[in-house]
Structure formats: structure tokens, C-alpha cells
Protein 1
Amino acid sequence: MTAEPFRCGRVALMGPPNAGKSTFLNKCLGQKVSIVSPRPQTTRNRITGILSGKDAQVIFIDTPGIHQPHGTTHRLMTRAAWDALDGADALGVILDADLYARKAEFLENDIEPLRAPVAAEQRPVFVIANKVDLLGDKSRLLPLLERLHGIWPEAGLFPVSAADGEGLPALLAAIKSVLPPRPSLFPEDTLSTAPLRFMAAEIVREQLFLTLRQELPYFTTVEIEAWDEDGEAGDVEIHAVIHVARSTHKAMVIGRGGQNIKRIGQAARMEIMELLGRKTHLRLWVKVRDSRAEEAAFLRSFGPAPEAWF
Ligand SMILES: Nc1nc2c(ncn2[C@@H]2O[C@H](COP(=O)(O)OP(=O)(O)OP(=O)(O)O)[C@@H](O)[C@H]2O)c(=O)[nH]1
Ligand SMILES: [Mg+2]
């Protein structure tokens, strides 16, 4: 009997906003590398998450949700998602199966931007029907799976729950089996290629989403202004600035008597401390920015636009 070769490759995770792409990635890794919120368009950049096992290394690339873009920001986010396909060995299309089991009419419109490119893919495609834990009666999934099979007949179909892990072992085994035989690209203990500073800023942004819910103004960004690891007893001191567009937004983020900013700071500090494995002090400021200059900086953070973008 010959031993299976070690396999390693990249898998781009794509899909409509809010489908559970980031939740799926975190669940596969058993740790949080990508932030999650009930609001669509939480992920703004490509995020890598690396799953290292004894037989394979899977490099997942989480992406912003793909949808019909309106305006420059959405176009840039959508581009960040499509760019993830470059160099990927396989593609995971994640869909909210519960949503389409209840509202079948939404499917066509939501997958429209993905439909033709995915159908034309030469690489292995995994269509991941997520959130099956929300379906009381699993037979409600069948018409959706049939439709998806009709749309992308070549793709593997996997009903899963990123929340409770149902279906993930079978899917991960299938993903590993299509990766090219080669040694790992990253050391075994690398969880992500994202710098810790970026991850810390994302954790603050996640807490903003979770605390403010629908009220969070879309252009809110978080910037790490200072990161001091030389504090007493090896503590890390982090200063983060939450940039908002208007003074009304600032009041919202701070909350009555400072209750929101306090909650955001406490929750983010706990998570960052876990990430760093060291005692952490987190100081937050809220600044009203010069909105035009700031929006330009926000857009620049996506990288230069290619000449022929739309
Ligand atoms: N019940 C249930 N909820 C889920 C599951 N997967 C994700 N969710 C929830 O769906 C919401 C969106 O999850 P995200 O992981 O942020 O989705 P996303 O696709 O990364 O979203 P964007 O980054 O905004 O495109 C969150 O409230 C998650 O908790 C699942 O399997 N079951
Ligand atoms: Mg996401």
C-alpha cells in the first residue's frame, strides 16, 4: 500500500454577503481569524486562514460577499473577492441554504454575478449549502440542492452548518483530496498571513458591528495608532482610533454615559488578549474625520484599481 502524498493548496471562499463565509472559515480552523456579524458586508478584505493537518494544508481565502456592486467601495470589495480566485486551486461557493429554502425566488438574483464564472471554472468547485441547522425539516433542502445541481452540474454539493459543524468533516476531506500533492507552503503553526495589528483592528470593528448592529454607519473604520510591546511585565498597549464620518456617529459609538465604547473596548480587549496570549491594554478613541479625505484613504486601503476595472 502506498502512502497518500501530502497535499497543499488554496481554496477561495466566495458567495453572497452574509452567507456565512467567515463563520465557515473560523469553524474549519477552530479559531477566529475572520470577523463575523449578522450584518451583510462585514468582511472587507481578503483574509487567509490556514488549516494544517498531518496529511494536508488547506489555505482558505475568505472574501467580501459578491453582489451587484453599487458605487466604488462595493466595486473594490467585489474586486477583492474576485482577485482571490487568482492562484486558487479550488473554489468554495457558500450560500445561505436556509434563506433560499424559505425564499427560493432570491437565489437567482443573489448568485447572478457568480453564475457564469463558476459554471466556466476548470478547477474543482464545492457548493456549500450553509446554515442547515436553521432548517427544521431537512427535506426542505432537496428542491434547493436540485436547483443548484441544475445550475452548476459539475460542482460538488455539500449541505453544512458552519455554526455547529455538521457536514464539515466530509467537505474538508473532499477539499483535501483535490489539492495538488506538494509540501506545505506555511509553517504548521501559521493560522493566517494577516498581521496581528490588522487582526486587532478587525476585532474592534467586529465589536462595533455587534454592539451597534444596524446603527453602525457603513464607513466606520478602525486604525491602530500605537502598538507598544515594551510595557511593564511584557504587557501590550494598543491605541486604536475609530474613525466616523459625523459627530452624530461619534455620539452613537460612544453611547449614553460612554456605555457603548466601554462595552466595545472590554469585549475587544478580551479577544485581542486571547489572540496575543499576553496581557493587553486597549485604549479607544473616536474621531470625526474629514470625510472626503478619509473616504479616499478608505478606498486606497483596497489597493490600486486596475486600469480596466469596469
Ligand atoms: N444559524 C447559523 N447561522 C450562521 C451560520 N453561518 C453563519 N451564520 C450567521 O450568519 C451571519 C453572517 O455570517 P458571516 O460569517 O459574517 O457571513 P459572511 O458570508 O462572512 O458575510 P460578509 O462578510 O458580510 O459577506 C452571522 O450572524 C453568523 O453568525 C450557520 O451555519 N448557522
Ligand atoms: Mg465575512
Note: The two ends are 53 Å apart (CA to CA).
Protein 2
Amino acid sequence: MTALNVKDIFNDLHQIPEVGFQEFKTSAYLADKLEALGYEVTRNLGGTGVVGIVKGAEPGPVMLLRADMDALPFVIDGEHKAIHACGHDAHCSMVLAAASLLKDKVKRGTLKILFQPAEETLGGALAIIDAGVLEDVDLAVGLHIRPVQDLPFGKLSPAVHHSSSTFANIKITGRSCHGSRPHLGVNAVETAAAIINAAAAIKVNPTVAWSCKATAVKGGGSAYNIIPDSAEVTFDVRSETNEDMTELLDKLRRVAENVAEAYGAKAEFNLPGGVIPAAVLDPALTAEVAECIKEVAGEENLAEELKNPGGEDFHYFARTYPNLKSAYFGVGVAAEPGLHDPNMHFNPDGLQAGVDVLEKITLKKLG
Ligand SMILES: [Zn+2]
Ligand SMILES: [Zn+2]
């Protein structure tokens, strides 16, 4: 068995960026490589997802290594373009290279390699769960390259604690009337403004990081001399813990409904994208990942655990299956100027360390 070179895979995948649920070439490439390595491969899971399985001779846990496949959509000079600006091509490269090292080393249990679609739309993990891929999984490991602001080149962090995030949409219905007789109507735009102001007074536990702020307002304007009967406010809401997210959303809902009522309007509160769960990582598995980082890269390159106000749909796995133990580590490759920038670039020499950590943590469980 020849080990696949992580940089060669990266160079191939970087040429074929595809957005969420459209990863046709990417998933075919990955599935073909896994098949050639001798994995038992299933394609088109939850859309474009790919799973490769290899079983050890002895009983043991089912361990999943997960990489996301999608690129991000941009419009550049009027042209629609998919660009790997979040490094998901790097994640697939590290997981596939690790799979090539692991194929003949799994002695017990089952190794599942997962290439997941559509992380950026936050729908990919749910599609994979719906396809039943996680049902028998005991341990799941994910990873992400980090921007240089988070990790210098060559350092690895054993845990990235993503936040819970969502957007809350509030539709306000008032009553329109002539602008000269405002007392006969209910002004939905004024109601929206009052809801935004009242939401600024929401408080939850100050020892966890959270935020709740209006990021879009729509309403009125069909004619400037009509009292508007409809408006819409959208809030971006984040919290480090799932518990505080529940409290935050409950308070925001009450603010919206009660302020609207005070104004004689109605507010309809919705979470159209669902709520992305915060990371609930397994401390023991995370400690083992930290050990692997020390062995692979040396103690001086083991970084602190990272907190991240961004969302990651990987955490739906542990949220859906509470007995599943998960770990999620960060790889320092000096990504600049930052993730989601169309000019994002990084030093691929840092990827091999990620491959080696994946191999080591897997062999601790299945070797
Ligand atoms: Zn991203
Ligand atoms: Zn990403």
C-alpha cells in the first residue's frame, strides 16, 4: 500500500472547487481514491457525501474521521466563482492521506471515512445524519485549518470550541393607514425599531461569550405617505453554550412578541436556519488528541484550546447522538488574510502534521 501525498491531493482538489451539495467532481475524486485504497465505498449519501469503511479483525469501536468538501460562492468582476476560501480542500486532503496510511493498520473495530457535503450552508451534517451514517458511530474526529490570527504555522490546537449560532427572523404585522392619520394605524417600522432597542437590554450569564444583534431590517417604503403595516427584523445570535443559547432565544422571542403587543402589532418569531449547536467535545478524547499532537509535532507546538464564535455543523453529530464522543482539532498553516476571504492562502507544508495526528489518534483506538 502506498501512502498518498497530502500536497498532491490538495493540488488536485484545489483545482475543482464546488459549492455545497454540488461537490460532484470532488466527491467522485475522493470516492475513487478510497476505492483504489481498498475501502468499501458508498457514494451519494445525503446528496454528494462519501463514506469509506474498513474493518479490523477484532471487535472494537466505530470511529469516524470527517472532512467537509464544499467551497464558497463568490461574485468577482460580475462572475460567479466557487473558491476554496475555507480550506475544506485541505481537510479532505488530510483525511484521505490519513486513510491511505490507515487502511492496513486497523486491527479492531471499524474505521469510517466521511467526506461531508455543504458545511458552509450548515445543511450537510444534517443530511449525513438523515442518511444514517452516524447511527453506529462511537467516536468522531473533525479538524479545520486555522487562520494565522488563531494559530501560527506549525502549531496545532487539540480543540476548537465553536459557538452555537443562529439567525432569528421576526415578521411584524401592523395596520396601514394614511400618513396624515397615524393614530388610525399601527406602524410596523416603529415597532421594529422598538424591538431592536428592547433587545439591547437582554442579558444572559456574563461569564460566557454571547451576542444578539440586529443585522437586517426591511419594511415600509411602498409609499412614504402610508403608515407601513409590515416589517421584518433579523438578528444574528451566538452563544458559547447551548444552554445560554436557549435562554437568549427565549428572551428575544418574548421581547419581540411583547413589544409588538404593546404597540398593537403582532410579531412572528422564526429560526429559519435552525440552531447550530455549540461544540460539546469529549474531554478524554481531546486529551488524547493533545497527546498525539505532542508526539507528532513536539510539545512546543501543542497550542491552547481555541474558542471560536463561528459555527460548525460537525457538532450536530454529538447533539443528535449524545453517546457519541467527539474531538475537533485545529491545524496551524498560516492561513491569510483570513478564512472566507477570496484570496485566502496558506502554507501546505503544515498539512502533514494534521495527517499524522489523524493517523495516531485512530491507531490509539483501532490499532
Ligand atoms: Zn467556512
Ligand atoms: Zn470551514
Note: Residues 159 and 329 are 5 Å apart (CA to CA).
Protein 3
Amino acid sequence: MLKRNTTYLAVVLVFVCVFVFLFYAGDAEAKEEETVTVTAEQLNFRLGPGTRYYAMDALESGTSVEVLAKQDSWFLVSLSDGRTGWIHGYYTTGSSPETKLSLQGIAKVEITASSLNIRMGPGQEYTAFDQLQGGTEATILAEENGWLLVKTRYGSTGWVYSEYTRTLSQEVTVTASTLNVRRGPGTSYEVVEQFEQGTAVKVLQESNDWMRLFLDDGSTAWIYGYYTSDAGDSGSGRDDDASQAPSRGGRQYLQGRTIAIDPGHGGRDPGAVGVTGLQEKVVAMTTANKVAGYLRAQGAEVVLTRSGDYFVSLARRVNIAHNAGADIFVSIHANSHPNPGISGTETYYYNYGGNAYSSRKLARLVQNQMVSESGLRNIGVKHGSFYVIRAPWIPSVLVELGFLSNWNDENLLKQDWFLDGQAQAITRGIINYFN
Ligand SMILES: [Zn+2]
């Protein structure tokens, strides 16, 4: 009981401190950007991002809500009364370019009570709409005064009291001679620290190949998971850096494989031309060379369908791959669209014939890596009937890195670090395919 009272006192104190901070910090400006207004007469306020989730309430037209996170066209929002739930973004106005939370979460927790209420807001006074059974895992999206906003494995979100949860972390050991610690899960993020080989690190979360951890100052940062081993393994003694090469374990999957890399366009065919003049053939060649380098470093044979700025017919490209005995064919392009607002990354495969399944798998793995690396909009994997993915008798994909017709995408496609990150991502996707 004494412990209980102390906890409540602490919660009250934290609450007071937060209130005082908000009052004096006056971050009304930042708040305003994250706010949208309901335009539908009645908008369902749901437990999760989809119409299959229970609607807890309906919001009136004109209601202002704070957007915490987005998933596709659904917004996770916070109401003025503290309740948290999901609305469809289509029925709102106001922009929310930056969202507060990542739905990837900051850590996983396990429920330690025999069962634990999930509530609509961060406090006992909010309605409990469900319970999590003991031993269940959930992802933490946010923390507030001892309450955790969690996402359950069914996709619904709600608040649980943190006292009855246990943070799940895993310990790994750094195997690279130095390993960059970054602000976010990708090589485009700022390096905030470096770990020496042999450093033991407690990992909160894994997202694709990136691992999230707490730094000593309590902030979180990311490392590239390929340069770690589970605690207890001896270091592999390899001498590479996350920003230099892509992968642990890649060698065992790529040894003996031949991979055809096809830099789109070339010579008299520049491909798409960007809003400030960047040519697709240049983006494709630069990226292809980087991918080839990373694949070779992992023991793969690589054949490039062109190695400079000259014209090669589509039929010739496919013949080069076939003659080399390539196992897969990866064509690299950049996109263009009449609407300059369109941005994002997509990967095509040909959905007919004996390679449809494998091509689709390769497309999905490469696309996932590219999007998680770049943070650009995930347009997804699609069937396409382009010659270079239709004609090969091996699994084939065509990646579109971004839109040259979009100012922001084109600017990224000019940056060497961006193309380098995408090349690493494509390499990881290929390794995963053979894994
Ligand atoms: Zn192209």
C-alpha cells in the first residue's frame, strides 16, 4: 500500500512538472502543426486503423484533434479529453506533416499481471475497452506519467499501466571494429556516437535490420544489426563499418550466385529528366555500380548490362544476363509522373510465367529494404509488363528509386549518400532473397 501511495505521488509530481514545463515552454506553435479538424458530420473514433476496429465514439464536425501517428490514410489521434484512437484522415482538414510517434514503437513489453486493462486514455479514469493477458507482448508507442500507449498484435492501440509490464530487451555484442550509432534506422541519419568492437548493447527493438537502443543520456538511437552478434558469441573479427558495406552473413548466401544488375537507359536515351535536369541514366548507373560493389564484397558474381554511358537495347540487356548464367535480374530506374506532387518508391515484377512467385518475393524484399532505408512513400510492389522483367527466364525485378519529377525526390537522387543507402538496401533485399 505504501508503495502504491508513493507511486501515485510520483505520478502527480511528474504530471505537475510536465504541466509547468508546457505552460512555460509555450510550444503552441509545434502543436498547431500536428492538429487537424474533422470535416465529416460524424467521424468514427476507433480502436485501430481500419473499419474492422470497434468505434468507441463519433467525433462531431469541427472537432480539433492532435495527430500522433499515421498508418496509410488512418491517423492515430489524441482528443482534448486525453482519449487516444484512430480516425480516417480523409475526413479531416489541416496538414500534419510531422507526426509525434513512430508506429514501430520504442520497445516491446510483456504483461506481468495475470491480466491488464487497456484504456482509452492514460489514467484509471478512462474506460477500459479490452484486457491483455499475462505474458502477452505489446509495442510501446509512447509513455506518459507511468502509462504506456501500446499497440497490440491485433493492431489496436490503448493505454496500460506500466507497473504491470516488463520491458523486453535483448543483449548483443558489436562485431565490427567500429559501429556507427545513428539517430534513426538508416544510413541517412546523423551519426551520434561510435561503438568499439566487443561493446555489449541492450537492444529495445528491431526494425528490418536496424536495432534501437537507449544511450546513456536516455535518448534512443539505432545501429545496423548485421554488425552485431547475440551476446555470448565471439566476435567475428570482421573489419567493416555499417556505413561502408552492407552485411553480416551475406557471404554465405551470395557465394556462387551470379546477379545481373541492369542500369536503366544510357547513351542517347537519358530516361526521365528531373525538374532541375538530373538524368535517370546517371542515377541508374551510379546506383548500379554501388550495388555491384556491395554484392561482390559479399562474394557474388555480378554482371552489369552496361558499364558506362552508352546505349544498350533491351534485348541485349536480357541476353547479357542469360549468357552470364545469372540467377536473378535487377533493373534500376528512377520514375517520372506528370503530377510533380507524386513521390515515393516502387518495385515491379512480372506476374505471369514460372518466375512470378520468385520475382514477386524478390520485389517485396528489395522494396521493403529500400523504403525502410529512405523513408520515402512506399508505393509498393506491382505487376508490370516491361521487357526487362518479362523477357528474362530468371526471377526479375525493376526498381524505381524515386520520382525525378518531384522536387524533393530529385534532390535526394542527386545525393551520393542517398544512392549509397539505396544500393545497400537493394543488396540487403537480394541477400534476404537468397537467405
Ligand atoms: Zn527508366
Note: The longest strand covers residues 64-71.
Protein 4
Amino acid sequence: MTVLLPGSLDEALQAMASHPTALPVAGGTDLLVHWPQRPELHRQTFVDLSAVQELRPLRWTTDELVLGGLTTYWDVIEDGRVREEFPLLVEAARQIGSIQIQARGTWAGNIINGSPAADGVAALMAYDGVVVLDSTRGRSEIPLAEFYSGYKQMRRAPDELVTQIRLPRREYSVQIFEKVGSRRAQAIAKVGVTVTRSASGWRVVAHSVAPFVCRCTALERCLESEASVGSPDDLLPAIREDVSPIDDLRSSAAYRERVMARVLYYGLLEVCPSFH
Ligand SMILES: Cc1cc2nc3c(=O)[nH]c(=O)nc-3n(C[C@H](O)[C@H](O)[C@H](O)COP(=O)(O)OP(=O)(O)OC[C@H]3O[C@@H](n4cnc5c(N)ncnc54)[C@H](O)[C@@H]3O)c2cc1C
């Protein structure tokens, strides 16, 4: 195993460019969990990002909250302003693993790990997060809602690092993050639904339902139209348009579809006059 330890962002981008198969390491919480089962990792080159100070800070501009490529869940939980303006980030972060995982795990790592059950990705997507990728070839900025194309398939070249995640600052009238798991802590989601409403419209994000975390645009149109919804089953046609639920070790496709409809219906009953 070779570990490169760049001391600046420039050095990190150079290391990624000159070692095309290198894997960046942030908190290591996803990478190291596979260590015993994946002996090929033991011969891998890693680029340890921990000394790259430029990737650490979370910062505010007039229009945006900008998370760095090394911002952890704990950085977000501790920030009072995030709690006020982006409460679903804090809610998602508090439900990720344990305090130890929250202290080490990063939002960027959650995005690149690409799990369909990624709680952090769901919250970021519901706030219209944009992924900023840098390499020695330049920069690309991709809305998170357009980042994935299949299970662990994403628009990232091997030499690119996530250096920022940008979130537009908006007034929200609805903010809901629901994670259904087998217990309240240390559980990976069986079904997750995140909903926001702002002047830019409704956002509905499903996680641990489809092969990747995704926006549900048919459900968003249904909410926008204020169509009458009298029971969870009234949401099933839109859910079926948006996602083909997965069957896996955590739950069945039928369970995911039914639970997603119920979680959405009861979550929105209080806030949507068209729900009764
Ligand atoms: C016990 C346990 C419980 C967990 N519970 C949850 C949970 O409830 N919900 C949940 O969503 N996740 C959970 N996770 C998964 C994990 O903690 C998160 O996905 C975490 O955010 C990963 O971040 P990291 O910094 O540790 O990533 P790492 O393990 O360092 O890296 C993960 C992947 O991202 C790549 N990467 C990292 N940083 C960058 C970057 N800046 N640019 C490009 N690529 C990068 C790495 O090469 C690797 O492919 C759990 C993990 C464990 C071990």
C-alpha cells in the first residue's frame, strides 16, 4: 500500500493527476469498512486528504453555504447557523452512524461512496446542492440531482476531487427528513424521504428506495398542482413514475413503495391543504 500525503490542494490535485488509479481518503469510514473483504485495497495507492487545509472549512457567502471537501457531519452539527438555515443537514447528520462516524465522516465521502442509502446526499439534494469537482484539468460544477446515473455510477472522472458542495440560501416553508430504519441509531435507511418547499418549488428526494438517491419529479408536480390526496395510495402512481424500488437485504421493493407512500402522506398531511 502506498499513501501520499499532500499538504495543499495543488499537491493533492497533482497527486491525483499523476496516480490515475489512486483513491482519495477523507474520513476513511467507508473505505476502511471494506478493508478485510477487499485484499486489492491493500495494494492500492491512497491520497490522504487530511492535511489539505483548503478543504476543511465550511463557509458562508451572501447567497450560499459552502461545505468543503473535508467538512464532516460534526462540523455541521456544531454550527448554529446551519441549524437555523439548513436544519435537515443537521437532522440527517445526527442520524448517520454513531458520534464517532459523525466526527470523521465527510459529506463529500458520502457523495462519492454513492450508496443508495446515503442520508447526507438526500439532505443535500433536497437543498439543490451543487458538487464542485477540481482536477489539474480544471473545474466542473454539477447539480447533485444530475450527478448519479445508476448504482454507484456518477459523473466524476478518476482524477477529480470534490472540493466544495454549494447550497443556495433560501427561505423554506416546508423541510422534512424522514429515515425509516430498523432502530433509531446506528441503522442504515430502509426507506428515506426528504421534502423541501421554497420559492423555487417543491423538492422530493427518495433514498434507499431506488438504485441511487434521486429527485422525484412526478411527486413534485403532484404537490405543485395541489391535486387532492386522500390516502397514501393516492401517491402510488407518482411514486411508480419516479422510482423502481430495489429489493435487497434491508427490505423488499413492495415494502419500500408502501412505506414511502405512507411516510410522505403523513409527513405532508399537516402542511399541505390538498392532503386530507
Ligand atoms: C458504522 C458505520 C455506520 C454508518 N452509518 C451511515 C448512515 O447511517 N448513513 C449514511 O449515509 N452513511 C453511513 N455510513 C457510511 C459513511 O460513514 C459515510 O458515507 C461517510 O460520509 C463517508 O465519508 P468519509 O469521509 O469517511 O469517506 P471515505 O471512506 O474517506 O471515502 C469514501 C469514498 O469517497 C471518496 N472520497 C472521499 N473524499 C473525496 C473527495 N473529496 N473527492 C473525491 N472522492 C472522495 C473515497 O475515495 C471513497 O471512494 C456508515 C459507516 C459506518 C462505518
Note: The radius of gyration is 19 Å.
